[in-house]
Amino acid sequence: MPHRIPALAITAFTATSALGRGCAAQLDGLRQRRSGLRHNDFTAVPLECAIGRVAGLEEAPLPAPWRPFDCRNNRLAWLGLGGDGFLDAAHAAIARYGAERVALIVATSTASIGATEEAYRCLEDGRFPAHLAHPHLHTLHSAGLFLQAVLGTRGPCLTVSTACSSSAKIFAQAERLIRLGVVDAAILAGVDSLCGSVLFGFNALELVAPRPCQPFDAARCGISIGEAAGFALLERDGEDLDAPRLLGYGETSDAWHMSTPHPQGAGARLALDEALARSGLAPSQVDYINLHGTATLKNDAVEAAVVGDLFPATTRVSSTKGWTGHTLGAAGILEAVLTVLALQAGLVPGTLNTSTLDPACGPQFALDNEDRALRIALSHSFGFGGNNCILAFAHGARP
Amino acid sequence: MATLLAQVAGIGWWAPGVPNWPSAAHLLSADLPWPTDGAPTPAARRLAPNERRRAPLAVRIACEVAGQACSMAGQDPAALPCVYASMHGDLDITDDLCTTLADHPLELSPTRFHNSVLNAAVGYWTIATGCQAASTALSAWHGSLASGLLEAASECLAEQRPVLMVACDIDGGGALARVLPTSMAHGLALVLVPPGAAATGVTLRVRHASGAALPAPAEPIALPRQLLAALACGVTREIALPAGAAARLDVTVSP
User: Fold this and answer.
1) pLDDT at A293 (0 to 100)
2) DSSP string, A174-224
3) A113 contacts in B (CB within 8 Å)?
4) Which residue, among A71, A120, A256, A390, would best test binding to B if mutated, counting the most B CBs under 10 Å from its CB?
5) How far apart are the first and last CA of chain B?
6) Contact call for B175 and A176, based on CB within 8 A
7) Mean predicted confidence (pLDDT) in A76-87
8) Residue A37 neighbours by CB under 8 Å, 6+ apart
9) Would you state the torsion angle of the CA atoms of residues B167, B170, B175, B180, taken in this order, to the nearest 10 degrees?
10) Which among A101, A134, A197 has CB closest to B97?
11) Among A392, A383, A219, which Cα is nearest to A315's?
12) What value does the mean pLDDT take over residues B140-159?
């Protein structure tokens, strides 16, 4: 098992999802139990499902200097970056440490493939039309190139793309770079936007629910896909005692199947063990877990069994996907932000849309919102390829 | 900026006509011309026969070079965290997905879809080898190789354990490949171990540095070949790999 690591301070963070722009909109949606999901009005070919769509992206092109990057995914990144004063906090960190001492680590599953799909719909003699032919639009690192141009960082800049665990893993990668002294701070960004690939791809796998997703419900029948942008600024543990902390993480592989979880959740259990070891925590100290909880039959069954085996009833658990949909490569950081907001607000978000809990779920599950003091929380992210990442957070500095 | 120091315990390489590290080392140290044709797909013996038949080229290349590097290092792949870096991922699959989506979105293949994720190759590798350690997949335009080296070295040192790094790209035939910089299919793998952990093997020092941006390579394969040449030359050599806007990764290879 890994050793305990020093905590890092999360000195700024923000998220934009179907619930709206910024942390206040996320928290208000959770408190009011107002889902951001709506009937699919995104695909030209009809697909019966609910989606978590961010409003207004169609009318918000990127400002002129960055027009070559203009596409839905980078618009979402731009909209999200401006939330909660994050852009100012990022600039202040760059000024404080120096541009080469700040890493920019981006996460996405499908990047700006929506622009690539559009180019394939209007090929001219087998070639992309001129307005969609810019190579920076069609690389997985598109948002990384765009955000580095906006922010002016000179530290390591890369994109992590491990499907639905992508933007959880960037917390781990940043921690290593800071611990080894490669950088002093890291700007983390997770961005994934609606596109045909994921809607029709998950549909082909028969994993898309025809109605809004119902995580852990006995009658659950699949996911609702959403889009989101989340940002976090990580620095060494400092004097700001109130800043939430990243305590640790666990990253593992299932070594089982490309698109279904290990039946006993072997990789998830190992990731939990590693996250708790790096954080110096026992399961009984965990107050809340934001579960992966996609509302697929298999994910939720496996995850419920893992939680039931390892945690006491005092550990409250829920899935917030009924509010936002499954935001894929952005889910890790969106749910990290929701987890930190839950810690700060003393709010256990329930599990929206779920009325009849699967009997396999234990007493840890919260369906309704609960008000209680929370100090330590985990967030689960699992992806295709059997890629698992679990993050551990604290409300503030440890006493 | 901190310098990260690790030992290279294993090396793997595949490209058409240059199917392994010894053949690449021979070409590079003797300054012989690089072949441009040869077997179009690698053997990828670590994959089970069924998987090997179905696996896309990008997955086969990754598993081939990873297998070579682990064998040379004498490391059990099941115990190694894996870092996979690629500039474009599987261009053939992205081309196929986008073509199908444009015409018949409801006919998308579920297997093609889950093979389209950047971590498909590392996913197949962990399944084939029973590896439950951490695995990741990175992309950073011309900085993709640098990002893989930096992450592998930092994971190796932060966790004090051997790490497998694989950097692969394939050529593509579709419309997407026409707007992106591509070169012939190729894969490089290194097993990095903490200093002193291997009795033999070259030492690798990596250091991220800001400064003038490096020019884009003539073709993407030039970058891994530059690193291979440094590994093959038998004396200390410094190279610089592109690592984003106004930054580079300085890499020093010492025998």
Assistant:
1) 98
2) HHHHHHTTS-SEEEEEEEE---HHHHHHHHHTT-B-SSS--TTBTT---B-
3) 94, 98
4) A120
5) 24
6) no
7) 98
8) A18, A50, A51, A52, A212, A213, A224, A226, A322, A323, A324, A325
9) 40
10) A197
11) A392
12) 98
Q: Is B120 exposed, middle or buried (0-12, 13-18, 19+ CB in 10 A)?
A: buried
Shortest Cα distance from A28 to chain B (angstroms)?
Answer: 34
Is residue B158 in a domain?
A: yes
Q: Provide, as residue numbers in chain B, all residues whose Cβ is less than 8 Å from the Cβ of A131.
A: none
Contacts of A261 in chain B (CB under 8 A): none
Q: Which of A262, A326, A380, A395 is catalytic?
A: A326
Distance between CA atoms of residues A163 and A158, nearest Å: 15
Q: Which residue of B has its CA nearest to A148?
A: B245
B117 inside domain: yes
Q: List CB contacts (< 8 A) between A270 and chain B.
A: 132
Is residue B159 within 8 Å of B80, Cβ to Cβ? no
User: What residue ranges do the domains of chain A occupy?
Assistant: 8-394
> Considering the domain boundaries, does residue B50 fall inside one?
yes
Q: Residue B148: inside a domain, yes or no?
A: yes
> Active-site residue A380, yes or no?
no
Question: What is the tally of structural domains in chain B?
Answer: 1
Q: Angle CA(B79)–CA(B84)–CA(B87) in degrees, nearest 5?
A: 175
CB A110 within 8 A of CB A182: no
Please state, in angstroms and rounded to a whole number, the distance separating the CA atoms of residues B119 and B114: 10
Q: Is the dihedral of CA A363, A364, A367, A368 positive or negative?
A: positive
Residue B81: how many other CB atoms lie within 10 Å: 23
CATH of residue B115's domain is 3.40.47.10
- Provide the 10 A C-beta neighbour count for residue A360: 14
Which candidate from A100, A139, A266 shows the least CB-CB separation from B1? A100
- Chain A residue with the nearest C-alpha to that of B117: A163
The pLDDT value recorded for residue A365 is 98
Pick the catalytic residue from A71, A164, A361, A389: A164
Residue B198 has a pLDDT of 79
Interhelix angle A23-32/A331-345, rounded to 10 degrees, is: 70
> How far is A341 from A25, CA to CA, in rounded Å?
11
DSSP A168: H
Report angle CA A83, A325, A289 to the nearest 5 degrees.
Answer: 85
The shortest C-alpha distance from B110 to chain A (Å) reads: 5
- Among the partner residues A113, A119, A180, nearest to B158 by beta-carbon distance: A180
Look up the domain containing B43 and give its range.
8-199
Q: Residues A188-227: pLDDT tens digits?
A: 999 999 999 999 999 999 999 999 999 999 999 999 999 9
Q: For residue range A3-37, list pLDDT tens digits in order.
A: 999 999 999 999 999 999 999 999 999 999 999 99
- Structural domain A8-394, CATH architecture: 3-Layer(aba) Sandwich (3.40)
Q: Using one digit for the tens of pLDDT, what is the confidence trace for B92-133?
A: 999 999 999 999 999 999 999 999 999 999 999 999 999 999
Q: Do B247 and A155 touch (CB under 8 A)?
A: yes
Which chain B residues are closer than 8 Å to A109 by Cβ? Answer: 117
- C-alpha closest to that of A174 among B136, B209, B229, B225: B136
What was the ipTM of the complex prediction?
0.98
- The pTM of the full predicted model, rounded to 2 decimals, is 0.98
